[in-house]
Design a protein that fits this description.
By secondary structure, this protein is of the alpha/beta class. It folds into two domains: 157 residues, Rossmann fold (3-Layer(aba) Sandwich); 118 residues, no CATH class. 42% of the residues lie in helices and 19% in strands.
Length: 284
């Protein structure tokens, strides 16, 4: 039997992940009272179900230490489980809470930021001990589904690091949550070529223009060498999310073209990490 405990930061997508797993044939139970967790595991292993998900989270009405004790007791009794931890950056979580106008379970009527900080401290050890950590900050719904399918249906190797490549325009503001930022404004700008001005880096004509220069080729080779060195070391240190920002003036031509090329290069030899691509300002 495959028993999966799903937990993580509030707003990171736990319920979404559980619904996806339910669609994949898992029997899902969410937010059992802590006193019933051990009993649930005992009944589970006496049943005929072969795929089960238990959702747990931090709530104001119970101590998460009690939840951890219950999970420890489950293991002591020989009932094995895997833990999936859903995470997201504080900025992303705050944005989601503002959009939904919901209160954080630990904000106690105060600021959402304080609730997020408290929850992250409480869950620090749980995240460190999780079997799988998925950062949803830059994941589309379909990308989250693909990641869950790879782990829990196809049984493929878990990709502990998700690399997100995002193009942006400096005039719209620098990418705030980027780990690495590359400024490609040193390249000739297609914006000043009349027939290319209204096109983007997703169009072949713009790509041909940007990629024709020797500087572009040298830049891409150096970026690839740098990432070939950095990514394995990030994985070794347990990093879950790497955000690479590629910026030009407006975020439509050069940055889009270069972000696409970096994405393709990483995708070709992608073994231990996942890769996603986003063009933040292409529609501005």
């Amino acid at each position: 039997m495959r028993f999966v405990v799903v937990t993580g930061m509030s707003g990171a997508g736990k319920l979404t992940a559980q619904k996806m797993l339910e669609d994949m044939g898992y029997y899902c139970v969410d937010n059992l009272p802590v006193q019933l967790i051990v009993k649930f595991a005992e009944l589970l292993y006496d049943s005929e179900r072969d795929k089960v998900v238990l959702g747990i989270d931090v709530r104001a009405d119970q101590s998460f230490d009690e939840v951890k004790q219950a999970l420890d007791e489950i293991k002591e009794k020989g009932y094995g489980y895997e833990m999936l931890f859903l995470d997201a950056s504080n900025k992303t979580l705050l944005k989601r809470y503002k959009e939904t106008r919901r209160n954080h379970p630990l904000s106690m009527g105060g600021r959402v930021e304080e609730g997020i900080d408290r929850e992250r401290m409480i869950l620090e050890e749980t995240k460190a001990n999780a079997d799988y950590v998925i950062d949803t900050s830059h994941l589309l719904t379909r990308e989250l589904r693909e990641e869950l399918e790879n782990i829990f249906i196809k049984n493929e190797n878990y990709k502990s690091l998700m690399v997100n490549i995002t193009s942006f325009g400096f005039k719209h503001g620098i990418l705030q949550d980027a780990d690495l930022v590359f400024d490609v404004r040193f390249l000739p700008n297609p914006y000043y070529v009349d027939e290319l001005k209204q096109k983007t880096g997703n169009d072949k004509e713009v790509q041909d223009f940007v990629l024709q220069f020797e500087e572009t080729e040298v830049f891409l080779n150096k970026i690839k060498d740098l990432l070939d060195f950095l990514i394995p070391n990030y994985i070794k240190e347990g990093k879950n999310q790497l955000v690479i920002g590629v910026g030009c003036t407006g975020g439509k031509h050069r940055s889009v073209t270069l972000a696409n090329e970096i994405y393709k290069a990483l995708k070709e030899d992608d073994q231990e990490y996942g890769v996603t691509l986003n063009h933040r300002d292409i529609g501005n």
